[in-house]
């Protein structure tokens, strides 16, 4: 057995022993969006620091625990706080929880994030359905030996964000009067925000939003065959499109729209 598989087995066994049952949907909750986990019913909470092979999240605004239970009638395992490449974690570590979700039975993953709007028709506070991504992190979580039992050496990324899930989210948004933007998420390593020149470049190559997460997790989801729904909260306009950027604004915007965000995710989850 590969080292990776052994670690996944140990982690999964620990999480199951803590009371986590079969998972349908893994949820990755981004900056300021973690409150959704508070709405999960019949909760089992497992702090990251107790879980073997799990690192500890260091970012302010990320609680750092798994929350299992029922949300919108589905069995979910939510990550309240995620791991970022810019924290110094390897890409393998950043994406490890996705592999664990899969091992615990998940067939799908809902991934969320806070990001900067590049598309000039976006406004802070908009929610964006992610239709595709650009990996601009400079690396890839699948670099290294491949375990063919987990996934293929050269995964197809043509439908990394499951088209049928996008249709459901759009229908749910329209039925509930939620204005949902759509677009391509471009992932940078961070931790700097981008420069105005990088944002002009991003727009030129087809990005609608930029951020520092999500891309590696979705690559690993594609690798291990998880369906994906991605929803971004546009917390600010990207560099050069507004006076300056700061984390306080990112947090303030997620606070402002979290009600709408939670509504969209819960109703979409119910319809999936
Ligand atoms: N750039 C990168 N990441 C972000 C941004 C941004 O403008 N806003 C929130 N996360």
TrEMBL record:
Highest taxon of the lineage: Bacteria
UniProt EC number: 2.4.2.1
Pfam families: PNP_UDP_1
Chain ranges of the Nucleoside phosphorylase domain: 25-269
Enzyme class name: transferase
Keywords: Glycosyltransferase, Transferase
Known pathway: Purine metabolism; purine nucleoside salvage
Family according to the record: Belongs to the PNP/MTAP phosphorylase family.
PANTHER family: METHYLTHIOADENOSINE/PURINE NUCLEOSIDE PHOSPHORYLASE, PURINE NUCLEOSIDE PHOSPHORYLASE-RELATED
Protein name according to UniProt: Purine nucleoside phosphorylase
Organism: Enterococcus diestrammenae
